[in-house]
Amino acid sequence: MYPYRSNSKRSQGGFTLIEMLVVLVIMSITTTLLVEGLGTTWRNFEKLNNQQLVVNKGLLPKKWFIDSFQGAQLYHPFHWGFTGFEESVNFITITPPGIIKAKPTNISWFLVSEGNGQTLFLRTDEGENTRVASLNGQYHFEYLVEDSWVKEYVPDSSRLPAAIKITNNENDWVYTVAGTALAPPIPPSLGLYGDHGI
């Protein structure tokens, strides 16, 4: 018996020319498909990002309004901190829109008629009017006070309504509830020792 000897070049280490060509063809096809797929994927991501920006642009004014009212504060039991009318609302908040390091800020939200619609503006302590949103139709503010909606709320003491909405009587553009107590806490000792001019 003679030992088996292979005449194959593979046993001497290495690949044949045919094997190398097959691998190169497979690699080129895979690379082409990968490049096409990545390009399509990036275009789809861009479309999704653009759609998300449009959605966020529409929701951001509502979020600002909701956050600002949920941060509304009452600092003194006998002085007003809130006034609400049909076309405007004023209050002190610790969450004013667009300010990262919040401090108590007096803000006003108000509606201005423009053509067939209205524009919602925001004014802060600095006195700048900022255009926040354009509304189609005629809207107004309403306030939830003692389980009923009213178009004007000017309390004679420091109080907040339970909720606010911007509505056109058919659709509510935004609705939010107070994030704090509706009336400031009065210390029990105040009745015992008098108000001392507060």
Can you give a write-up of this model?
The chain has helices at about 15-70, 190-195, and strands spanning about 80-85, 90-95, 105-115, 115-125, 130-135, 140-145, 150, 165, 170-175. The chain has about 200 residues and is an alpha+beta fold. The chain has one domain. The strands form 2 sheets. Strands 1-2-3-4-5 form a 5-stranded antiparallel β-sheet, with helices on one face. The longest helix is centred in the N-terminal third of the chain and has 54 residues, at about 15-70. The chain starts with 16 loop residues before the first helix and ends in a 5-residue tail after the last helix. The model has no long low-confidence stretch (mean pLDDT about 80).
